[in-house]
Amino acid sequence: MSQLRFDGKVVIVTGAGAGIGRQYALFFASRGAKVVVNDLGGSVKGEGGSHSAADQVVNEIKSKGGVAVANYDSVEFGDKIVKTAMDAFGRVDIVINNAGILRDIAFQNMTEADWNLVLKVHLQGTFSVSRAAWNVMRNQNYGRIINTASGSGLYGNFGQANYSAAKLGIHGLTLTLAKEGEKRNIRVNTIAPVAATRMTETVLNKEMLTYLNAENIVPLVAYLAHEESQETGSCFELGGGYIAKVRFERSHGVLFDLPFTPEDVKAKFEAIGDFSKENEYPTSNADAFPRIMENVERLKNRPQPTPAPAQTQTTQAAQPQSSGPALKCDKIFALMNSYLEKGEGKKIVESLQATYAFEITPKKGAPVAKTFIIDLKNGLGKVFEGKQTVDATFTMVDDDFEQVCLGELNPQNAFMQGKMKIKGNMKKATAFTPELFPPPTPENFAKYTSGSTQSTSTPAANPTTTAAPATTTSSGLKCEPIFNLMNSFLQRGDGKHLVSSLQATYMFEITPKKGAPVAKSYIIDLKNGQGRVYEGKEQVDAIFTMVDDDFEQVCLGKLNPQNAFMQVINHFLDIILIFL
Predict the structure, then answer these.
(1) What pLDDT is attached to residue 123?
(2) Which CATH number fits the domain that encloses residue 561?
(3) Does 5 fall in a domain?
(4) Is the domain of 18 the same as that of 144?
(5) Rg (CA), the chain
(6) How far from 500 is each of 262, 444, 489, 541, 543, CA to CA, in Å?
């Protein structure tokens, strides 16, 4: 594997006088980069200043044959830091926003000075240096920016309200800069590192610090900063040789009738936060609009909206209460067993090859009331009440077990909060997740425990034999089988509701690639009869022009239609920005 080099590149590293920043500076210099070593030389609390920290790193780089200059300005003066780079090297290719301080204190005791100074160094400093370098990168059509967040910013942490707010704000800045810089080959990412530095040595124990050497943060940052990396707008947690990407997740959510009340929200609150089905991973604020529009259309097409009284909804949402020896988990384990008996868990058994015991208590601190064995090693698998030697044992309160199975309590959170105790083979234990089995919903209870023999899927009639293809001649475009499928769907009568509700005609002009002339035009008639799709040109209500690949991606759900449209708008805005 060839070495990733940075020859001819100019790198600014803030807070480079010690810790992770020093490691960045030494590494980039060793790989051929010219480095601006910025460090105010202050304390961890942001007090004082000295030239010695930056000078020592510069001297170390030079002693090894590298090229570096020092800068002693506070990161709030990003223009001065960038000026140092421009004066010395004439360009800026990479910015590593690393400088930081800590002023940890409980919120009730935090002063405005504690708040302001931390935000000034972290958030304002990241903005200031990035802003000063931004136009340099735009003009040279190249740049890489690595911003430094923290797990405290992503998840919150006691005594760090100032630090947490700044660090999450930094990732918000990353997300926007990634979008604004994409067309100019400027890639912007965030890291949330855990490493042994001046800022963590008072927080982590000595044993942990030995594994969290700052050098272990460098490889990811170096890759993200390299010209080969096209990653942008991402956040990574890392430390001790562990790297993981973090993303946002959104539940499927709930569509409410309008108007609705706080009581309606209360009744549906668990469903609003249900992450067990049809979750989404949004990357844009436009990603929420399809669901919003879905609700608008639902309301528009509803003849007589009759919202159920809030009291009724509350009653329906209330959880059944356990009485006597009966536990909520009884039905859940019965559902799991039925699922396995039907043979639907064969792949789980093949992949896990493990046995588990679940010790269930009726309430916190109470003795174990029942123990269930989940055998995912033998035959089709089975679930039964009893005790035997297993690979891993989970001990949980009945209510918490139900919440985990419903997807309302994250298993990792349950473990960290002490709501789930685990003993035995941890690798086997972590392989067992609620997603292995159907969630304990009324529908699944009826399906798996009522003795029904209903199949999990009903084969559809063959759509290709009931209608003529929409395409007259094959051109190899990916859209052809998609339009044929649409036409077959309509000819079977499955689109009657679309025709009755839309009453419109559409034309899709498909090009083989960006900038190429239209290769084929398809008409989708959702106004007459059962509707139909055919190749041709005529007057319609709306025309869509798309590249073949993009059309396929939209149909597969891999490209959001709003995003596809917004990319055209963003391209137009970028052209305008050239003249600003």
Answers:
(1) 97
(2) 3.30.1050.10
(3) no
(4) yes
(5) 30
(6) 35, 33, 15, 16, 20
- Rounded mean pLDDT of the chain? 84
- Whether 92 and 203 share a structural domain: yes
Whether residues 497 and 420 fall in one domain: no
Measured from the Cβ of residue 497, the count of other Cβ atoms closer than 10 Å reads 9
Q: Which domain holds residue 234?
A: 10-246
Q: Which amino acid is at 474?
A: S
Q: Is the pTM of this model over 0.85?
A: no
Is residue 126 located within the same domain as residue 259? Answer: no
How wide is the angle at C-alpha 531 spanned by C-alphas 530 and 534, nearest 5°? 140
Distances (CA, A) of 185 to 10, 85, 181, 348: 16, 20, 6, 44
Q: How far apart are CA 217 and CA 203, in angstroms?
A: 18
pLDDT tens sequence across 451-485: 533 332 322 333 333 344 555 566 688 888 888 88
What own/partner pairs with CB < 8 Å and gap ≥ 24 does 211-214 have?
211/240, 211/241, 212/239, 212/240, 214/19, 214/20, 214/22, 214/23
Clarify whether residues 30 and 163 are in a common domain.
yes
The one-letter amino acid at 225: A
Question: What is the number of domains present in the chain?
Answer: 4
Q: Is the peptide bond before 259 cis (omega within 30 degrees of 0)?
A: yes
Cα gap 538→111, rounded to integer Å: 69
User: What is d(CA 294, CA 314) in angstroms, rounded to the nearest whole number?
Assistant: 25
Q: In the numeric block, which tokens belong to residue 22?
A: 């020093």
Tokens representing 12 are: 């600014």
**273/367 same-domain check:** no
pLDDT digits (tens, 9 = 90+) for 43-57: 666 566 689 999 999
Question: 57 and 119 share a domain?
Answer: yes
The b-or-e profile of 101-131 (16+ CB within 10 A means b, else e) is: bbbbeeeeebeeebbebbbbbbbbbbbbbbe
- Catalytic site positions: 163
Amino acid at 139: N
Burial class (CB in 10 A: 0-12, 13-18, 19+), 329: buried
